[in-house]
Amino acid sequence: MKKIHVFTSAAFNYIPKVRMLFESLRRLHPEFVLHLALADRIAPGSDLTAEPFDHVMAVEEMGIPNVQRWIFCHRIVELATAIKPFMLRALLERDDCAGVLYMDPDTVAFSRLDDIVQAVSRHSVVLTPHLTLPELTLEGVMDNEISCLKHGIYNLGFAGVKADEQGRAFASWWCERIYRFCRDDIKNGLFTDQRWIDLVPAFFDNVGILRSPRHNVATWNLRRRLLEGSVTEGLRVNGEPLGFYHFTGFDSGAHKAMADKNAQGNAAVAGLVQWYLDATRKLAQDPLARVPWAYNTFSDGTPISPAQRVVYRDRPDLQDTFADPFEVTGYPLWWKKNAPREYPGLFDPTRQAGELERLTQQLSPGCSPEPGRAVVQAAQLAGAKPLQPAGPPASLLRRGWRVFRREGMRGVLRRLS
């Protein structure tokens, strides 16, 4: 019998919150198969057998091309979102899979999700918008509707995908896009994995939009959804049982601030936020919450800076030269010798922040599955004729990169015409 598979994505330090989500699902839906997509390595000596999920798949087990290069290009939050389509694709290929639900690790289910399961049985892809009703005040428009235009119409704290041809086609397309472009770069129209999903109803057939007010309740839609009751006695949204709530931005304090603003005076919201705060305070004492991220340092334990990740991500010549950028005898030595000369702004305290922002927002092809072809592929995407090799590939790549840095893609195209 085919089953519904549910997964979430997190590094080790978030597993205590994952536990809250999966305990709620285990209680309400014992028939679900629960998976953790781990944006981390399995820490030596870690025992996950008592956790309320059935399977764990670490990022290095997902069949991602050039995985060490690719991981290095992402910070922890980016990586936790970037692995989602690859885990989805793997689950959809299982013989026992009827459909897959993704839920963020900072969500909790409060009543059965049978309407979601039914939606996945009818539609190839099921999405939940951030907002399902127009805001009624200027403040609401500025806080929430304009935020949706920046971050995406649909919230990727949830997605449902049927194990059919269209569902698998969606997963493959999403993998291709996220491989290169999972970035928090709103100025270039990117917000991790989420903005891409705005294209899904245009690109794929049989997409369902779940507008029920009881699902994916969060601070951004509390102005138009009335939450009543309590955790102990049951919570209702616009008269319906609360399906699942999204405690986004909780650790930073943003969730409480926006809940106070968008649901001012609502005792049910205040009680729910306090309940989660109390629970997560206890979880913070869990040893798993203190496991350091495996990809935070080079092989000798030296921390990796955001600038080192961005420069490597945007330099196909570096990707080609340093297949394992974590290895301390490779990329870090290049950085120490060459980066101060090539990127002086990153080493000037008065210019550092602005220079990093400039580099971060410079749209590039990102990590290439075939680093040695990255400049050629970028040129071809821009409409150039195929490049005919004029010498050793490495030297050709270096020349192409120098032209790209000095003159941009127009300079590359001019030399290819």
Automatic annotation (TrEMBL):
Gene3D superfamilies assigned: Spore Coat Polysaccharide Biosynthesis Protein SpsA, Chain A
Q: Keywords for this entry? A: Transferase
The domain of life is Bacteria
Q: Which GO MF term does the entry hold, naming one?
A: transferase activity
Q: Which InterPro entries match?
A: Nucleotide-diphossugar_trans (IPR029044)
List the protein's name: Glycosyltransferase, Glycosyltransferase Family 46-like protein
